[in-house]
Amino acid sequence: MGKKLLNLVKTRTGIYGLGFNRDSVVGLLLPILFVLIVGGGLSLLVWLMNR
C-alpha cells in the first residue's frame, strides 16, 4: 500500500518526469541542509555575541 501511494505521489509531482531518484534527491538536500544548519548556527553565535 505504502509503496503504491509513494509511486502515485512521485508520478503526480513529476519527480519521475525530471529523472530524480531517491539518491539524487538526498544528494541535493544534504548540502543544502548542511549549509542552512552551519550558517544558521554561525549567525546565531554572532548574534548572541553582539547582544
What does it look like?
About 85% of the residues lie in helices and about 0% in strands. It has about 50 residues and is an all-alpha fold. The model has no long low-confidence stretch (mean pLDDT about 75).
Q: How is the topology of this model organized?
A:
Elements: H1 2-13, H2 15-18, H3 22-49
Global shape: elongated
Span between termini: 53 Å
The residue ranges in which pLDDT falls below 50 over 5 or more consecutive positions are none
Number of strands: 0
In terms of DSSP E residues, the strand content is under 5%
Please write the string of helix (H) and strand (E) elements.
HHH
Look at the structure and give the mean pLDDT.
77
Q: What composes the largest sheet? A: none
The helix count comes to 3
| Estimated helix fraction | over 70%
The value of Rg in angstroms is 18 Å
Structural class: mainly alpha
Summed up, what is this model?
The chain has helices at 2-13, 15-18, 22-49. The chain is mainly α.
Keywords:
51 residues, mainly alpha, 3 helices
